[in-house]
Design goal:
Blueprint (H helix, E strand, L loop, with lengths): L20 E5 L2 E4 L4 E4 L2 H4 L8 H13 L12 H13 L5 E6 L2 H18 L7 E5 L8 H6 L16 E4 L4 H11 L3 E6 L15 H12 L2 E5 L13 H5 L5 E4 L11 E6 H9 L15 H38 L5 E5 L2 E5 L6 H10 L2 E2 L1 E3 L2 E4 L7 H18 L1
Parallel strand pairs: 3-13, 5-6, 5-7, 7-8, 8-9
Antiparallel strand pairs: 1-2, 2-3, 4-10, 9-10, 11-12, 12-15, 14-15
Helix pairs in contact: 2-10, 3-10, 4-9, 6-7, 10-12, 11-12
Bound molecules: pyridoxal-5'-phosphate (PLP).
Length: 405
């Protein structure tokens, strides 16, 4: 078989065997041989509304017919991107905020890192340049977000990383307090996922996010929540900040904001970050992407938010409860070692000696698509998944594990 021309992300470049998908409906996708798979990870943690959602298709098509594309640099705006920003502020934890738009989670993270440093500089603190993140964190693949990642293998072999971006042990608030005690006057921001996703699905320890909030407040650093996975319904709330009762100074988002129907991402900036940026009317924010605020993309995201508001966000805890109950029953009979998660994102920790890639492959054979993360398997289904489909995911995991042992 010839190696295809498409070079795949996060894949062995010499790989030759691929599953070519041709259609999707609800929580099911179908490959070119007509085989169906339950989408147990909402594609890559993002198709909240499921596949084939026609209101989004229509909103994008209608916008394409009116104004397919135009930039938002400097003086230009368009209706869908303004409306999307307003709607995001409305559902955010802030009374007053603004939204910077991009296309991917990696762009959102790099934007937030740059805005944190820029805002500190404008506030008279150019010495505050350190960005702190946590082991196990995933913040995308651009040089900023890659430098902030706490997954070592993803950072190897790409040359020098961004200076003054440092990681601390994932759950150690005392260690973080020591870092602040020693270097707090040089820290621009702390960035963390409220629930660490790609690093293994790790909810925060009790009091951890509150501890971060306190340290940042005491020392004048910004707190950034990377809600690329957690935002837009995954925790049963618009943002995980609301679910955990901790309000950061900036929130990065992507994925669920458009359910991936269009590439949309962004950063919500609170007043604390905005005020220094807005104080000098001659200051120019020299940052932006050609497709920031793309009208067809933002029209799709707006339609997605309507679908989410219409009962889907409320369904997330029910999806999470049924899924986690099923996984726990497998843990209690020893099929898997452990279960962890929050909202509608969960991980099944496999027993020693079980290979997560082999179990994933066996699950694919049986018609369920999930993702191996280290020695665990991640489940993060579309919020439209039915109870029966959730049960099938759990049964197929059990069958796949048993087939390996
Ligand atoms: C928390 C988090 N931040 C950033 C990213 C990067 O997003 P993207 O792949 O859209 O660049 C991801 C992707 O999974 C993510 O989970």
């Amino acid at each position: 078989m010839a190696v295809p021309k498409l070079l795949h992300p996060y894949a062995v470049p010499a790989r030759e065997d691929f599953i070519t998908l041709v259609k999707g409906e609800g929580a099911v996708v179908t490959d070119s041989n007509g085989k169906d798979y339950i989408d147990g990870l909402a594609s890559l943690w993002y198709v909240q509304v499921g596949h084939g959602c026609q209101p989004i298709v229509e909103a994008v098509t209608n916008q394409m017919r009116k104004l397919a594309t135009f930039h938002t640099f400097e003086k230009f705006a368009n209706e869908p991107s303004e409306a999307l920003a307003a709607r995001i502020v409305e559902v955010s934890p802030y009374d007053d905020a603004r939204v910077f738009l991009g296309n991917s989670g990696s762009e959102a993270v790099d934007t937030a890192m740059k805005l944190a440093r820029a805002s500190q500089v404008r506030a008279g603190h150019p010495e505050r340049s350190i960005i702190v993140s946590r082991d196990r964190g995933y913040h995308g693949v651009n040089y900023g977000g890659m430098s902030a990642q706490g997954i070592a293998v993803n950072k190897e072999g790409f040359g020098p990383l961004l200076p003054e971006v440092i990681q601390v042990p994932a759950d150690d608030i005392e260690g973080m307090a020591t870092l602040f005690a020693n270097s707090g006057d040089k820290i621009a921001a702390v960035i963390t996922e409220p629930v660490q996703g790609a690093g293994g699905v790790w909810p925060p320890p009790d009091g951890y996010l509150e501890g971060l909030r306190r340290l940042c407040d005491q020392h004048g650093a910004y707190l950034i929540f990377d809600e690329v996975i957690c935002g837009f319904g995954r925790m049963g709330t618009w943002f995980a900040a609301e679910h955990f009762g901790v309000t950061p100074d900036m929130i990065t988002f992507a994925k669920g904001v458009s359910s991936g129907y269009q590439p949309v991402s962004g950063v919500v900036l609170s007043r604390k970050v905005l005020d220094p940026l807005e104080a000098d009317p001659t200051f120019m924010l020299r940052h932006g992407y050609t497709y920031s605020g793309h009208p067809a993309a933002t029209a799709g995201a707006l339609a997605n938010l309507e679908v989410l508001a219409d009962g889907l966000i409320d369904r997330a805890p029910k999806v999470g409860a049924r899924l986690s109950e099923g996984l726990r029953s497998l843990a209690s009979d020893g099929t898997i070692a452990d279960v962890r998660g929050a909202g509608a994102v969960w991980a099944a920790q496999l027993n020693d000696g079980q290979d997560s890639f082999a179990v994933r492959d066996a699950m694919l054979e049986l018609g369920v698509a999930v993702r191996p993360i280290g020695t665990a398997l991640a489940f993060c289904p579309p919020l439209v998944i039915t109870d029966e489909q959730i049960d099938t995911c759990v049964d197929v995991l059990a069958a796949a594990v048993n087939a390996q042992s």
